[in-house]
């Protein structure tokens, strides 16, 4: 007990575990002071991605050439960023503080949580216009023709995958590779948003970025699905992950959506429209279509799951 009350012990612990206190400081600042889209440095990253693609992604080029151009553009942007971040990390006077700042820049968990609350409120008021506008800021799919049922389903999917992609996965790569790893992961997420193959102008140019994101998503999202399954009858949810998640086009998101669908008895997946073209997707889960109540319940459960995820990441950093 005396050791726990000794300030010198805490100072020594903080000095030996700089990455740990940087993690919690970054998450706390992010929750209290999240970066808006207008102030995020990734808006310039996306603008440069559009500019670069306009120079090397031509509609009249052969398919293989466009695929190669997409891979080279991805390597150029992420490779250059990685070199700059690694070089800067060697020059700073405090690496934990540097990593914490990078993690703060990489996180976007709080805006996704706010999106879930705002969308649930709009659905509860039967405000289709506001609901569609909110959803359009987060997804590449067409939202103009969505009913409230479709908005609820798309909103639940966005809340689940957004929390994982902008929160849990970022923290996972911070624990593995520090702030540099977290920021590089987020840079790939934003590149995929711009170069998504679901946009006809970026098919097949964006396939390399999509495949890379699917690869780096697989492990953290699958592990986060295990955390989400905690509670009553976890083996039932894990069984649903295995049976339904593997039918999804990408394994990590598939596992996570299947687990959430089983956990809350929700119907997810199904057809989606991208730029006027209907895309068939696997149906996941069973039960009811997400409504306002389900979005709020899902938002609360995801928040608790991220806190558990943070605790587990902290243990990993201590060990």
Automatic annotation (TrEMBL):
Q: Does the keyword Membrane apply?
A: yes
* InterPro entries in UniProt: Cobalamin_biosynth_CobD/CbiB
Membrane-spanning intervals of the chain: 12-33, 68-88, 171-192, 212-230
Membrane disposition: Multi-pass membrane protein
UniProt entry keywords in alphabetical sequence? Cell membrane, Cobalamin biosynthesis, Membrane, Transmembrane, Transmembrane helix
Recorded metabolic or biological pathway in which this protein acts: Cofactor biosynthesis; adenosylcobalamin biosynthesis
Where is it located? Cell membrane
Specify the domain of life of the species encoding this protein.
Answer: Bacteria
Pfam families documented for this protein: CobD_Cbib
Q: Which family does it belong to?
A: Belongs to the CobD/CbiB family.
Q: What's this protein's name? A: Adenosylcobinamide-phosphate synthase
Organism whose genome encodes this protein: Salinivibrio costicola subsp. alcaliphilus
